[in-house]
Fold:
Amino acid sequence: MASWDRDLDALEGELRRARAAVRDVELPAALSASQLLRLAADAQGFARDLARPMPKPPQPAARQGTRFHAWVESRFDELPLPLLDVLDPATELPGSDQEIADEADLDSLKAAFERSEYAERTPYRMEVPVQLTLAGRVIRGRIDAVYRNPDGSYEIVDWKTGRTTEADPLQLAVYRLAWSETTGTPLEEVAAAFLHVRSGRVIRPRDLPDRARLERILQGKSDTDSDAQPDS
Structure:
């Protein structure tokens, strides 16, 4: 019983110190687009991640998404599909049930894309690296595809291969602004959309934040409730 009391006292003390401690965490000079989304959604959680980074487990869905992106790129560029190591050699062997399931899932993603409205549209650019400076911070990302319309305007498209239809419009806002400023295209002539590949659903958010609103979000100021509203 005495040892239990000591353990409980130690745990209680650690919890009190964690709650009472205030630690300033410096925001990196450069952020990825996904880090910006994390910051906007949960600033305290993002700060905790920076203060105490933890290793992340392998993400099979992310690897599957990488394979799909490579296939789309090769489909339009007529390039051979890169050989991608998507299996953990410590846990998966060629021909395993997991590998067979992964291949079947990738085939279903391909078939779903072929049914989408983008199947017959040739991208203007694909896998475009972009960089943007917002509120003194460099934001980096990669646009899946850019389409050019007959009137000279553009549409940014981000493929979503997960099973959820949730996506943060801030990602499109960053990519849209980066493309606009990089190419000198007026922001109103750059549209943006998510293609949720599995369902074929295309979501074109309305009222995407411009530079000023994105900078306010990055600085933690109010206006986050003015994020884009989805439009199918």
Observations:
- Residues 60-114 form one domain.
- The mean pLDDT is 78.
- The beta strands are 30-32, 125-134, 137-148, 154-160, 190-196, 201-203.
